[in-house]
Design goal:
Layout: E1 2-6, H1 9-16, E2 21-25, H2 30-33, H3 39-51, E3 55-60, H4 68-77, H5 79-84, E4 87-90, H6 94-103, E5 109-112, E6 114-122, E7 128-132, H7 148-151, H8 178-188, E8 213-214, H9 216-223, E9 231-232
Parallel strand pairs: 2-3, 2-4, 4-5
Antiparallel strand pairs: 1-6, 6-7, 8-9
The structure holds iron/sulfur cluster (2 copies).
């Protein structure tokens, strides 16, 4: 899931400036979970904008604004209200905003209402936690299914560092040392021998941007059966 945080209202209002009519687009998936772009959040922002003297010409919360086809449908259904607006306020992640830009036929000015923070998961208490940095070379199997690249503040591939203290991290004493967690997890699974392996530095060329992946079914259609494995580049 893509984790977002709302931008400060004063920052959004500054960007909107003198524009009077705004259309709001939220996101029914990740941003709804983060409480930044779901229906309730869109309605809350709508009320605020109206109190500030703006007219909200309409709003929509597509299920997946980062899926181009979904955003196209949502924009097409609200064509009139969008045309009427001076600009669009996007309450979603950076992927969604880019999808909006690519699919907005009216070439409206798009204001970004959220900051995109990280890829994360939701724990049992509803807290959003960063768990993967999309390094392109997953080594979770060697680290007991716990990502050291992301969860160790130093990104150590072989830990723990000398600063770990009673299972806590020296960078943030309120957090568990991820390498202690890895050790305990491997021990429970009789895989402590994996701690003895030294991990080679990551091949960060796999993270060179922008990355692109052709899923196998698309590759088979566009590049012939020989290329049907799907390839990231
Ligand atoms: S090693 Fe960590 S950052 Fe890399 S892909 Fe696996 S979970 Fe993500
Ligand atoms: S104490 Fe553990 S989690 Fe913290 S920086 Fe050192 S190895 Fe990483």
């Amino acid at each position: 899931m893509i984790i977002t945080r709302p931008k400060e209202l004063k920052e959004i209002l500054k960007k909107i400036g003198d524009e009077k009519k705004i259309f709001i687009v939220g996101c029914g998936e990740c941003a709804a979970t983060c409480e930044t772009g779901g229906e309730k959040d869109v309605l809350r922002v709508k009320e605020i904008l109206e109190k500030e003297g703006k007219t909200v010409t309409g709003w929509v919360v597509p299920e997946a604004p980062c899926v181009a086809s979904q955003i196209k449908i949502a924009l097409a259904k609200n064509k009139k209200a969008i045309k009427e607006a001076d600009s669009v306020l996007a309450l979603m992640c950076g992927l969604g905003v880019q999808s909006m830009t690519e699919n907005d036929r009216d070439k409206k000015s798009i204001h970004v209402g959220c900051d995109t923070l990280f890829m994360g998961e939701v724990d049992k208490d509803g807290v959003l936690l960063e768990r993967c940095s999309a390094c392109g070379d997953c080594t979770l199997e060697e680290t007991g299914g716990i990502c050291a690249v992301t969860r160790c503040p130093k990104g150590l591939l072989d830990g723990p560092c000398g600063g770990t203290d009673k299972g806590k991290c020296e960078v943030d004493k309120d957090r568990d040392c991820v390498w202690t967690l890895i050790y305990n997890t491997l021990k429970e699974r009789n895989k402590l021998y994996l701690m003895k392996d030294t991990h080679l530095p990551k091949d960060y060329s796999k993270m060179s941007k922008p990355r692109q992946l052709v899923p196998p079914s698309i590759a088979a259609k566009t590049q012939g059966p020989g290329k049907a494995q799907g390839a990231a580049k």
